[in-house]
From TrEMBL:
Histidine kinase domain ranges (all copies): 226-441
Hydrolase recorded as keyword: no
InterPro entries assigned to the protein according to its UniProt record, in alphabetical order: HATPase_C_sf (IPR036890), HATPase_dom (IPR003594), His_kinase_dom (IPR005467), HisK_dim/P_dom (IPR003661), HisK_dim/P_sf (IPR036097), Sensor_HK_Regulatory (IPR050736), Sig_transdc_His_kin-like_C (IPR004358)
Organism: Sphingomonas bacterium
Identification of the protein by name: histidine kinase
Enzyme Commission number: 2.7.13.3
Length: 441
């Protein structure tokens, strides 16, 4: 005898019919035939399947009275609604009590909206006045909330790595810029792995205060290692699967699903970049941080950095004017770190250049120093902002997509650790010129 049970959910999320086992589970949650499905995990999957027009299957945990049941749910669109097939039906062991460090709790009385995400940081539930929940389901969390400003992503990553929580995190609604405060708690699956967030939010009128972050060793070596292990492999898998779907490697898919996969890949790559930066940050801020000293060819490093960004520049219709192949510029430093700095500087120049623009890379060697200048045709940087961009999490325009405010901070710290520096010259409307200087080789 099979343990599979089925149900039909209409386009409004109402339960049309159900096998006895699902009907009883739904009734224990307060639902009934003809009413909205009262089992959030199944309802969310049905909404996502209906919106994308594809079959979706995944595990879920559903409350059954005072107990939890682990299920395997498969949702399939059909003309009269979404057919849901449920199997597995395994009682779940009760979760251990929260560790003492998980001190944050949500005050539902103050919450103005509720949200949930899965392990890939995709929205799985959203409720509250003023939100289009149907449009938000399945979108990256960073598409719903602007989490790219200041230290906005750090509390989420810290909570994910530590299986903890965060509270009153400043953010903005991406669609209209309204200021909000987010709180969230990491969820774990049956294997103890990060499974997403459940959280609340409220709107604010005043300028946000500093984020309240869980008391963990935020930039210690242990934290960096844990963050790297917890997020890098899952994010790499997300990127690989999303890129495969976007490239239609397994056959044609609907155009909107290709776009959806591309959004997932982009969001995951952004998070991977932030993980890389946080790991670097933890390294350069350790008291014992040191960089190898060796003779390098700064001209060769510059050409390699430009080559790594050639595809991005071509997609942006920006030309990189790199040094000639026979140019040589000896310097003292560490090849890998010099390359990292130049990739950051050239990548920024490409990002802020107009279509059809040119990024110039110029070499210079004099007075015991070797230098590379990266010049772009962007809108330039005001004098009052030129010091701030080198601060930790410092950004000129926090509303711009991409970036996290760590790149230039890390680049300058690395350059100074090699006995050099990163400086900027710019005038509004006249582009920017960033120069990496190292001791002459």
């Amino acid at each position: 005898m099979t343990d599979m049970a089925a149900a039909l959910i209409d386009g409004e999320g109402r339960l049309v019919e159900a096998d006895p086992r699902i009907a009883a589970l739904n009734a224990s949650a307060g639902g009934g035939i003809g009413q909205p499905l009262a089992l959030p995990a199944i309802a969310e999957l049905a909404r996502l399947s209906r919106r994308l027009g594809i079959v979706i299957a995944r595990p879920a945990v559903v409350a059954d009275g005072e107990d939890d049941v682990e299920l395997w749910i498969r949702a399939r669109p059909q003309p009269d609604g979404i057919r849901v097939e449920v199997s597995g039906w395994r009682d779940r062991a009760p979760e251990p009590s929260p560790a003492p460090r998980d001190a944050h709790r949500f005050d539902a009385a103050e919450a103005q909206f509720f949200w949930k995400s899965d392990a890939a940081m995709l929205v799985t539930a959203l409720s509250g006045e003023g939100f289009d929940a149907a449009a938000a389901i399945g979108q990256p969390l960073t598409r719903l909330f602007d989490l790219t400003t200041d230290e906005a992503l750090l509390p989420l990553l810290s909570a994910a790595a530590a299986r903890g929580s965060f509270a009153d995190q400043p953010a903005r609604i991406a669609a209209d810029g309204r200021a909000i405060r987010l709180s969230g708690r990491a969820q774990v699956d049956g294997g103890g792995f990060f499974a997403g967030f459940v959280g609340t939010g409220r709107f604010v009128n005043a300028a946000p205060a500093e984020p309240v972050v869980e008391a963990t060793p935020a930039f210690g070596e242990q934290f960096a290692d844990r963050l790297d292990r917890a997020l890098r492999t899952p994010l790499q898998r997300i990127v690989a699967h999303a890129d495969s779907i976007g490239a239609q490697a397994d056959g044609p898919v609907r155009p909107e699903y290709v776009e959806y996969a591309q959004d997932i890949s982009s969001a995951a790559r952004h998070l991977m970049g932030l993980v890389d930066d946080l790991v670097d940050l933890s390294a350069i801020e350790r008291p014992d941080f040191a960089i190898a000293s060796e003779t390098i060819d700064l001209a060769d490093v510059t050409r390699r950095a430009a080559g790594l960004l050639a595809v991005r520049a071509a997609n942006a219709e920006v030309r990189i004017d790199r040094p000639a192949m026979d140019d040589v510029l000896p310097a003292i430093g560490e090849f890998r770190r010099a390359l990292q700095i130049l990739v950051n500087l050239i990548g920024n120049a490409v990002r802020y250049s107009p279509r059809g623009g040119v990024v110039w890379l110029r070499l210079d060697g004099e007075a015991g120093h070797a230098s590379v200048t990266v010049a772009d045709q962007g809108r330039g940087i005001a004098h009052e902002d030129q010091a701030r961009i080198f601060d930790k999490f410092g950004r000129v325009d926090a509303s711009e997509p991409g970036g996290n405010g760590l790149g230039l901070y890390i680049a300058r710290r690395l350059a100074r650790a090699m006995g050099g520096d990163v400086t900027v010259e710019s005038e509004p409307g006249q582009g920017a010129r960033f120069t990496l200087t190292l001791p002459e080789g």
